[in-house]
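Table S2 (text version). Query chain:
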Amino acid sequence: MAPDRTPNVFERFFSISAELFIVTNGKGKIERVNPRWKDILGYEPHEIEGRQVYEIFHPEDVERSRSARDEVFRRGTYRDFENRCLHKNGSSVWVRWHGTTDPESGYFYGTGVDITEQRMALQSLERVTAIATHETSSLIRERERSMILRQLIESSNDGIGYCDANFRTHYVNHFLVADLGWPIEGGNLFDFISPATRAKYESEMIPAIFGRHESWEGEVEFLNAKTEEIVPIWQKTFCSLGSDGKPQYVAFFATDLRTKRRAEAAIVHSSKMASLGQMAAGIAHEVNNPITIIHGTAGLLKRAVQGETRDLGKITQGLERIEKTALRISRIIKGLRMFSRSGESDPPVSTALRAILDETLDLCQERFRDYAIDLRIEEIPEISIRCRPTQISQVLLNLLNNSFDAVQREAERWVEIGFTSVDGRVRVSVTDSGPVLSEETQRRLMEPFFTTKEPGKGTGLGLPISRGIVEEHGGKLVFDRERKNTCFAIELPTS
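Corresponding structure-token output:
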């Protein structure tokens, strides 16, 4: 009989739901919210949990919200209550709530949907309706209506425009003119897109809107006519037909993805800095040991030089030892600097696999030694891979750090790095003696923010980020289900 995974299904639904979920106790204190709060109201769950629910409501809606809460405790449930919530940035977001209570515990369980756009559209419609009611001149009514719609479009943070069936623009709004430097009218949409986007238009967008009369959306690249910068855009497009049934106008909406990308990059960098902090103690040992060697050798050399008989052979050996140890410190510092930068803009170069492994191990080998973890390394093949060495080293270091965390409290502690090279590809595997992963954990390994580590030790971003890096290099990052022990492997094409 298969195990009951209903709680996991509910937890998964809670995590990915498009609605706001909230649980409060009988005193109005927020006990739990789902990740959707970050998307709609800007709060991470840990930023909002523990606060009073009324703190997130607009001051003008607090009393009305209190009355609604009292009503739901009398009736046990309510639907379609709307109020304004305060976004983390200070703006207002309209939310429609449904909720119910548990009479025994006094807990309140609610779900919410963002209806801000609906409310704005309704308000605009009400204003247009009021204008139509009070103005007797149809010309004035039309002018007012057009002005309102124009103001809404011009104030949008998204690009809005339309062109004819030949993609000659007839109108673009303030965003496209001010932020991307497009002409107000008379340009051609194909003049302001990248070659990759042109290919996507021809293979996907044009067949959809002209051939099947469907709307189309996807990620494209617009050109900033002022700076010639390529701007990532999420574009939505549809075609309107004339009275003859032929395409007349093509309308498009463009959402700038740069802010989202910067936020994603900040999360990635934060994850890397967290990993760097976890390595700090090990790095201190990595640097302290060679410094001790240099200090001790320098003392011996000093006494040898001051003595009556000077053994030039021993002095030379001591100097060579100092030189070799200083180079090791230099490699460690180089590795730290390499790890702290992204490497995304580095050009791919042919790099020896051994060089990448050496730089990676310089950052963690001593930590494994301190915890008596047997780090086993198979013979490294003399092959090269075309890659961004910084990024591949970051992936390997992440896998080694995960293995370190998995085995450091086990009775049997070992981590093994293995290599297989076949058919122009090399496979680097990291296997450890940690506990076997459950089926549920294996299934969710690559989900962003999923982690089995204790709070404060893992972000849940290491594996998804690593997989993205490896795939950008034409390879893949996999969990080897065939091995008895926990094993991750990266496969990359060789030079």
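Notes on Table S2: The longest helix spans residues 258-306. The two ends are 50 Å apart (CA to CA).
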